[in-house]
Amino acid sequence: MPPxxxxxxxxxxxxxxxxxxxxxxMPGLSGHEVCRRLKAEPETRDIPVIFVTSxxxxxxxxxxxxxxxxxxxxKPINPVIVSARVRTHLALKQQSxxxxxxxxxxxxxxxxxxxxxxxxxxxxxxxxxxxxxLSWRAASVKDVRxxxxxxxxxxxxxxxxxxxxxxxxxx
Length: 171
Hints:
Layout: H1 5-15, E1 20-23, H2 31-40, E2 49-53, H3 58-66, E3 71-74, H4 79-103, H5 114-138, E4 145-156, E5 159-170
Parallel strand pairs: 1-2, 2-3
Antiparallel strand pairs: 4-5
Helix pairs in contact: 1-2
């Protein structure tokens, strides 16, 4: 268990757990902010988050669901209930992962399909733009437009297909 929200974010990015039980009140980043950040990142957005808190107001529960939590457990906790909810959300996550995997593969050849290619390209480009953005911000460069270009070569039926993707991104 990480003792703070910042350490939790680092741990979640590195280990990519199947489920996260997250306290709403933590030192540093609140549980709500950690959940917002997890749901904003493509690498962690599909990890189910269950809030565990002593706050039992309906507004708190609604806020948790609005920012991306899948469940809400109030303290004091009942281990049987927590175990049942974790098992349920782990089963849903496993099914979701399986469906996502099947959607990314050609059912006959089991080779990654165009959807998988497009998703990986999008993730790679977003990651590159984010890294450039961080380095430019560190260098105090303001209002920079990043023009990136990807050329993709694909061999299909013995022929070469050339695709030029250009995009301008504000960072």
